[in-house]
Amino acid sequence: MIRVLLAEDQHVIRSGLVALLGLEDDLEVVADVGDGDAAVSAALVHRPDVAVLDIDMPGTDGLTAAARLREKLPSCRTLILTANGAPGQLRRALDSGVGGFLLKTAPPDDLVAAIRTVHAGQRVLDPSLAVTAWDLAADPLTPREKDVLRLLADGAEPSEIASRLHLSAGTVRNNLTAIVAKLNARGRPDAVRIARESGWLC
Fold it and tell me: Which of 63, 109, 155, 176 is deepest in the core (most CB within 10 A)?
């Protein structure tokens, strides 16, 4: 019997998934919750074999919850089930070591098969995202450049960035110029957008 935890903030969808998995002889839903914090807490109590997690939930998101489960309950494998197949989210999921990444548009049988596959220690990727995964570019930004870009994304001016990172104003300007060039961006706001969509600003 494969013990499953479901974390999905939309109650109707979560109830439907519980009913769907309840039809399978080898699957047992041991907990269903509506946010990432509850997912981690419930997993530590019920010790599921597989946690099926949505990404966009109140409080802790599904990818952060997956990382925490990997640390606190390594025996529990994780499967992301989401409507958000953006490259940045896929990159975060792959980097965090989840066992599978499936879109909510997948047929029900694919979800059931994915749970069994992830439980067996193999990885699953939604077929519609295979090309996206192949095309994911490596992160070209240095840690310092990402620090600068995060502060810029939060609305800080270059002078404030320099002060907060203990850098000279010239160094910050040089970093921003390098960031725009590396990302082939049209300007600083475009650089922030590209980095976010690519999953380089978490």
Answer: 63
Q: Residue 62 in 3-state DSSP?
A: helix
Is beta strand 77-82 parallel, antiparallel or unpaired with respect to 100-103? parallel
CA proximity to 51, closest of 127, 114, 137: 114
Is residue 111 within 8 A of residue 6, CB to CB? The reply is no
pTM metric for this prediction: 0.69
CA atoms within 13 A on the CB side of 87: 17
Per the CB < 8 A criterion, the answer to whether 25 and 47 are in contact is: no
Contact residues for 133 (Cβ-Cβ < 8 A; gap 6+): 90, 94, 125
Q: What is the pLDDT of residues 24-49, one digit of tens each?
A: 999 999 999 999 999 999 999 999 99
